[in-house]
Amino acid sequence: MASSTTATTGPPIQVLVVDNDPAHAEAMADSLSRVGYQCVVAGSGPEGVEQLERGGFEIVVSDLKMPGVGGLELLEKSKELLPDAQVVLVTGHGTVESAVEAMRQGAFNYLLKPLDLKQLRAVVDNAARSQHLRRANTELARRLDEKFGFESIIGNSQPVRELIDRLRRIAPTDATVLIQGETGTGKELVAQAIHQNSPRKNRPFVGLNCAALSENILESELFGHIRGAFTDAAHDRVGKFEYADGGTLFLDEVGDMPLPTQIKLLRVLESGEITRVGSNEPVRVNVRILSATNRDLETAIAAGAFREDLYHRLKVISVRLPRLVERREDIPLLIDYFVRMHATRHKKQVKSVSAAARRRLLAYEWPGNVRQLKNAIESMVVVDYDGVLDLDDLPPDLAPKQEADGSPMDSGASMAELVGKSMSDLEALFIGETLKVTAGNREEAAKMLGIGERTLYRKIKEYGLN
């Protein structure tokens, strides 16, 4: 097979060849098939329209002059039915006017008869390159939606469902949003999900941590600077606002922003203009602001550490992220998700997570929230050697405490308190405690107890458990 720039990844490019001269149509199709294109031949304009209606073509090669439906009509129909398809027109009656009209209507290229098949392949290869780029962009958009869309917020608890419902209503607007939540609850992930589901999704998402920088550096990062603005300013520099123009700027830890910078940020929000450090020339910017903090800003306002007028500007819409312990029933889903993620990343084979390890992970208070759980699972995956994540794989801060003699500390009722209870009372106690640990997740509780879900449902009903 001759070399070509046809599909290097994904399925071969589908080409529709339309010409009322059967010999010429077959010659073009055969030439393109030899270099890897999948070709379908239509012997007339109407037949070409029928093929277009069936779909699937990324490139159309058509004669310009045909009885009934000509090349320009086919071009128009192609743009209607397959707007992403590239159309190459071929004619033996070439004029400057017809070429200009074809290109004006959206033809990719225009070739003259007698046709040079090498030139045809070169033109179709160029069209194929544009289609590969479109495929890559489509795949990138799909992956971004998967990574940063609402589907990336893992959970099925009531707090998460309410959060996603609120985000769906917020995202399509241009309102500023203040995202509040403890460290590790996923504030940046939520900001990216808002951006990815907004009309600005194809423009930049730019993040900046306001707590990590000094006042002067923060202002330069936000607004940019001109050459000579300060000692090390050897060149003009575009700031985050200009870089995010048309898109979204995410200000993380905005509660730690110095007061002088707060004043300048407020001015930008009010005027829609920034001024680079060292310059007097205002620059118009069109940016949506999302901000996040784990601080109580109302307390900071009372203490004089945060401007009240800026607070209200940033908090047109507010979103509060639940702590992990407030959505404990999502922990099993998160465990499985992070196990798959880190097993793939570290090329480890993980068959399962033991019931004992799941109990420990479910019962833990998670002061670092989802981020701490994610890091704990990664640690377990990395140190595991037998394909089963168990208590011996837990990070030290999660490992069960032990008595002085080395035996596990009893965190629940002592054995003495259990002595004398009937087996049915003990069974009800353990089922009830397991349901508490799993936050009512019956599927996970059945898995931890080693019984079927139907058996668990029957026991819940039998013992009158909620």
From TrEMBL:
Residues the record lists as 4-aspartylphosphate modifications: 63
Matches recorded under Pfam families: AAA_lid_14 (PF25601), HTH_8 (PF02954), Response_reg (PF00072), Sigma54_activat (PF00158)
Response regulatory domain segment(s): 14-128
SUPFAM superfamilies: CheY-like, Homeodomain-like, P-loop containing nucleoside triphosphate hydrolases
Alphabetized InterPro entries for the sequence: AAA+_ATPase (IPR003593), AAA_lid_NorR (IPR058031), CheY-like_superfamily (IPR011006), Homeodomain-like_sf (IPR009057), HTH_Fis (IPR002197), P-loop_NTPase (IPR027417), Sig_transdc_resp-reg_receiver (IPR001789), Sigma_54_int (IPR002078)
Keywords, ordered alphabetically: ATP-binding, DNA-binding, Nucleotide-binding, Phosphoprotein, Transcription, Transcription regulation
SMART domains: AAA (SM00382), REC (SM00448)
The protein's name in its UniProt record: DNA-binding transcriptional response regulator
Species this protein is from: Pirellulimonas nuda
